[in-house]
Amino acid sequence: MKRRKFIERSLVMLAQFGVMGGIFRRAKAELKDYDPSKHYYGMGIQINKCIGCGKCVEACKAENGVPKEPFFFRTWVERYVIKKDNGVTVQSIDPRIERSYEAFAEKDILRSFFVPKLCNQCENPPCVQVCPVGATFKTADGVILVDADRCIGCRYCIQACPYGARYLNPETETADKCTFCYHRITKGLLPACVEVCPTQARIFGDVKSNASPLARFKRMNKIHVLKPSLNTEPKVTYSDLDGEVR
Amino acid sequence: MKNFFQRFPDSLIRIGAVFLLFVSAILFVRFIIPSSLKNEEEHVKATIERETSRSVRYAGSDVCADCHEEYNVKKLGYHRNLSCETCHGPAKEHSENPTETKPVVPKKREACSLCHTYNPSRPTGFPQINPVVHNPLKPCVTCHNPHDPKPPRVPQECQACHAEIARTKAVSPHVQLECTTCHTVPQQHKVIPREVKASIPGDRTFCGKCHSKDSPAKETPKVDISTHGEKYLCWQCHYPHMPEVE
Amino acid sequence: MNPATASLYELLKQVTGYIYPNEIEVHWGILVVVYPYLTGLVAGAFILASLVKVFNVKELQPVYRLSLLTALAFIIIAPLPLLLHLGHPERSYEIFLTPNFTSAMAMFGFVYAWYLMVVLLLEIWFTYRRDIIIWSQGEKSVMRWIHKVISLFSTDTSEKSVEFDKKAVKAITIIGIPSAFLLHGYVGFIFGSIKANPWWSSVLMPIVFLFSAIVSGIALVILLYMILTPLRGEKISIGCLDKMASYLFYAVIVDFSLELLDFIHRLYESEESIKILSELVMNRLFISLGVIQVMLGMLLPLGVMICIKLFRFDEELRKLLYFVSVILIQLGIFATRWNVVIGGQMFSKSFRGLTAYKMELTGFEGFFMTLVLLILPFIVLSILIKILPPWDRSVERSLGERIA
């Protein structure tokens, strides 16, 4: 009798330990000891590697619950076709809406390429400057976030963003934008767009780090940012950026 | 005290009283509002917490390796840098609940042609085909293993090492030319490739064999090589593996 | 899918060139056009009133109180369109809880409160105080109490107190003029400080806003004066009218020069954005800018007023011409606001394409709401006129009798 009870108790205790251990492990895996002051995030984009497949756009919408309609994007891919008569045609590639890319006669094309775009997570973000209620702000690790509980939906930030990176989420009626997948990067994962990019056109990392793919990207390439004259100091940098890209 | 008030006109005192009433009302309202509503730092913390606690949908490639052997095949092939979820879609749920939810297994041609259809905007050297003429209606997987994609034929000699050039040439007007048409390759080159090199054409007359005005070759673009770009070698302007001229 | 999103598919067909995919929607619609229009009228009407007190322009005395009440009526309604266009109007109090001091928009509450409380209400109170006391003495029930409360139960009508009121009004006006400049200059700054938008980003923007505000405010008071005076069976004072028209004329000239300067400056510098802006002006804004704002709203009235100055038209013809001119000017200034607000959002920040704006009929951002918001200030004004009649001479008459 005693023995049976002992075994019973041990089993229960064991089970309890197991559950607790599980919880502990899970908690450790999810929260970790994330210290935002130890990071400062940026992204490098190699235009010469982008094949314009649109996987990043798809993954971003799936990961972040971005409305499916083609008017709301946290990231998108532009296709530039510069023709020999110097005419420039730009399209936003949406693999779900229009799989066919506009066709050009090969002999008319001077050069052509794809450019992925997203929130530049500016060092001097104009959107943060203009928000009347302080509902958008820069975190210690350099990401611009929106407080959807306090955003009043005045859309001043959308007007102030030079890159068209913000949209008004039709479900919440608040401003929304790329967060570098903040919920992923704080767990040590890559942003969804970087994760799925088949050609590593996007390189995510810590701008402070000296030994990382991002550091290598900056060492090996001539890099540039979008609209440098506006002094927003983007943390999204491009290599092989063509002058026609705006 | 009374004297003090009498020094001011009656109207000013009345306005002053109303003004004081207003100011104290505003101060009172500000005072009774809980500090949590006014505290910017707490709002920032709450937003960061909300952002970080959002659910992850893309698990990241490392997770797949735990169960799936295909991972080991993939990591040696051309698709080694491709994340599993690029083709199979978000799989976080599947990784937590392997039996209940299954990620997609793309089998249609469109899944491959999304990246591999020829598009002039894609970087040269990226493997591309024309899906209309490339074994139409046949699923890609009949010839190619997506986890270890290779051309089904044994690679021709040059292509084995000079794959990028071969691929570029494959979509160029020079596709019909054998490598040996322009390069003479000593047997030794295949053994010690860096010491013994294949020849490269030396002067303009070489290209002129097909492209000069008086060349007997048919259906090649012809120029008068005595006047056309006279002080340059042909390949200073035209990349022979992808001669981009109409 | 919500209907607002569904309507974007319609707009997609009207896009020309390339726009960033998030740019299809014109985020600041007709309500944000109405907002600077109403605020402009406030600032303009107040500045007209200030001319009487600060520069002692005697001819304008008949419209002094009317312009003050007009400014008050319009400033009460002015924040309404701003509030209604918000995605979350119920959260607007956040602007007072956690104002972001680098945001021009966050300062709205403070500039507005300062202007309404410290300037307008105070000036009106000191102007009317003695009259209210006297009115309340000869009244019954409701009106009596309204007036008593408004006068803050003050009873002092002595010479000394009236003398103090006058001094107070003068002091407030002196603070008031820069405040009125601040109020509308600030609205211009909201747009002028957006470096991402070359159509808005201009140091001249606050000044252009200010002068167009003065133009629209004076024009509105002229219109009200010309309509209300005959309604009361009185005669329009042509001296007052000529004087107001004269100020309007100068204001239009300054406004026109500033806008011309802005235009020439942009054209001469020909920055990166010049191509898309020319396209914007030639295609999307041709009617509202070229025809309504410049031709009908500025050049035509300017020509008319030059003619009035040059040739000695008789009184009746002058009145008719003034009347037509001020209506045209109102139309022109509304078009100005439209061209700034809507025009600034119709071109892509990629400078490669144009989107379109389609006003709805119903709904918060619709045509009917706009009409309501434009009519509301006049309803408020009529109530204010009931409570604080701007032309009641009974007090002077009774005082005159007393002296006699």
Task: Describe what is shown at a glance.
Chain A has a domain at 2-31. Chain A is 27% helix and 22% strand. Chain A is built from seven helices and eleven strands.
Fold and architecture overview:
Chain A has 246 residues and is α+β, with helices and mostly antiparallel strands. Chain A has a domain at 2-31. Chain A has helices at 2-31, 55-64, 126-130, 156-160, 182-185, 192-196, 213-220; strands at 41-46, 75-83, 88-93, 109-118, 136-138, 144-146, 167-169, 174-176, 202-206, 223-224, 236-239. In chain A, a hairpin with a 5-residue loop joins strand 5 (136-138) and strand 6 (144-146). Chain B is mainly alpha-helical and 246 residues long. Chain B folds into 4 domains: 2-38; 61-142, no CATH class; 155-200, no CATH class; 202-240, no CATH class. Helix content of chain B is 41%, strand content 0%. Chain B contains 14 helices and no strands. Chain B has helices at 2-6, 10-32, 35-38, 40-52, 61-65, 70-74, 84-88, 92-96, 109-116, 157-161, 163-170, 179-182, 204-211, 234-237. Chain B is elongated, with a radius of gyration of 36 Å. The model of chain B has no long low-confidence stretch (mean pLDDT 85). Chain C has one domain. A two-stranded antiparallel sheet of chain C has the order 1-2. Chain C has 404 residues and is mainly α. The model of chain C has no long low-confidence stretch (mean pLDDT 90). The radius of gyration of chain C is 23 Å and the shape is globular. Chain C has helices spanning 3-12, 30-54, 61-77, 79-85, 94-97, 108-137, 141-150, 159-192, 205-231, 238-269, 274-284, 286-310, 315-341, 367-387, 394-403; strands at 16-17, 353-354. The chains are: A alpha+beta (246), B mainly alpha (246), C mainly alpha (404). The interface between A and B is large, with 52 and 35 residues.
